[in-house]
Amino acid sequence: MELSVLLLLALLTGLVILLARGHPKAHGHLPPGPRPLPVFGNLLQMDRGGLLKSFQRLRDKYGDVFTVYLGSRPVVILWGTEAIREALVDQAEAFSGRAQIAVVDQVFQGYGVVFANGERWKALRRFSLATMRDFGMGKRSVEERIQEEAQYLVEELRKSQGALQDPTFIFHSITSNIICSIVFGKRFAYRDPDFLRLLDMFYQSFALISSFSSQVFELYSGFLKYFPGAHRQIYRNLQEVKDFIGRSVEKHRETLDPNAPRDFIDTYLLRMDKEKSQPNSEFHHQNLLDTALSLFFAGTETTSTTLRYGFLLMLKYPHITEKVYKEIDQVIGSHRPPALDDRAKMPYTEAVILEIQRFGDLIPIGVPHKVIKDTNFRGYIIPKDTEVYPILHSALFDSRYFDTPDTFNPNHFLDANGALTKNEAFMPFSVGKRICLGEGIARAELFLFFTTILQNFSVASPVAPEDIDLTPRECGVGKLPPIYQIQFLSR
């Protein structure tokens, strides 16, 4: 449906609600912000470039902590490294609630480890962290899994014989196979039709979730949900994936050996059986499906998108790529696969990967939080259940922490002697109690996949470096790189 039609419907519906409700009421003592219209909130202050640009402009006027009304609900915006850390780290418990993302709310409905709250979230997070640490098996480390997948990747790229290709499919496949081996206990062949279908569902959904229409939906989901739109396609896509997970769970149940759990699903089923007599247990079928979906989606989409950004940047900045080649040759050579122990001896490559994550800015607005109690923050009173957006983009591009934030520059993470340095503003996985639970796996994947590819292949493009466009395809909840073609040439 055209945006103009959606806005017209919003206006007409809003007028009806306006007559019924009157002006939005203020609660607590919220941070400053533009005065909202009844029902429509700060629609007039919204930029056509999307929520991030809107927030950036409002921050210039109201400072690092301000309130914006998305429709009739107030949202507190945290801008910059200090504001985000003060909230999510210094007052971690108060800001540990999870608000919903409107376009996926119908899919998750507060279930699963990512969108749960309270005791449900605590129980699922503890279980997920422990199970992903040892996969319920203790047989193979995540490093071994990634190294094995990296060799399948090398074989697949060699088959291309240097032909131009869109790397989306192959990067999706390798990252998805790592999370599949943990959750489902198996990897998929790259040409498996069921696997390709699932990857396509994820790719479509992440693009739709990050689209401008989904940002409009976030403002007026209460009535736009009754009309056609991206939210319905997202629901169909993710429901199809959830149906696949459901079938996998049934197969696991039929072949479950209590003495030898194979993967995340087996371990969860054993926990379900253990707590089946507890009426308030959070280990039930719904939480299993939605937690598996969360891990599967996030584990596939985030790291693969980062790799896509990374290799586009390697094409754009060949002088940086050459330095990575040199360090790989010096430290690893060509006769053994990269290992995680190599990271400590490869500060430049590590700095490049960190800068890819910073510059790629994968989740610019951050996954929304909410306060779980009335919270005093910087002299303001934020009422319980108020949504809070920690704008991760504002930290990753914070000029107080990065000398040239708008430039791709690995030196942001190196000291004068070329040693790796930490940076408080680097938070692509967020910070605090809701930090991404797959951070360790993602970091391992990025290093091992990135170095294995560049150990075996040089990269090339028909487009001159100076003509390569880095403008994102979408920038909303997520940020997607433009579609591009690349050649992997055997070294």
Automatic annotation (TrEMBL):
Keyword terms: Endoplasmic reticulum, Heme, Iron, Membrane, Metal-binding, Microsome, Monooxygenase, Oxidoreductase, Signal
Instruction: Provide a GO CC annotation, any one.
Output: endoplasmic reticulum membrane
Task: Give the GO biological process terms.
Answer: epoxygenase P450 pathway; xenobiotic metabolic process
Q: Which residues bind heme?
A: C436
Q: According to Swiss-Prot or TrEMBL, what is its membrane topology?
A: Peripheral membrane protein
Q: Where in the cell is it found?
A: Endoplasmic reticulum membrane; Microsome membrane
Q: Which GO terms describe its molecular function?
A: arachidonate epoxygenase activity; heme binding; iron ion binding; oxidoreductase activity, acting on paired donors, with incorporation or reduction of molecular oxygen, reduced flavin or flavoprotein as one donor, and incorporation of one atom of oxygen
Q: Write the signal peptide boundaries.
A: 1-22
Q: Provide the taxonomic classification.
A: Eukaryota, Metazoa, Chordata, Craniata, Vertebrata
Name this protein carries in UniProt:
Cytochrome P450
Enzyme Commission number: 1.14.14.1
Q: What is the protein's known function? A: Cytochromes P450 are a group of heme-thiolate monooxygenases. In liver microsomes, this enzyme is involved in an NADPH-dependent electron transport pathway. It oxidizes a variety of structurally unrelated compounds, including steroids, fatty acids, and xenobiotics.
The text of the family note is:
Belongs to the cytochrome P450 family.
Among InterPro entries, the record links this protein to: Cyt_P450 (IPR001128), Cyt_P450_CS (IPR017972), Cyt_P450_E_grp-I (IPR002401), Cyt_P450_E_grp-I_CYP2B-like (IPR008068), Cyt_P450_sf (IPR036396), Cytochrome_P450_fam2 (IPR050182)
Superkingdom of origin organism: Eukaryota
Q: Name one Pfam family in it.
A: p450
- Catalysed reaction, written as an equation: an organic molecule + reduced [NADPH--hemoprotein reductase] + O2 = an alcohol + oxidized [NADPH--hemoprotein reductase] + H2O + H(+)
Required co-factors:
heme
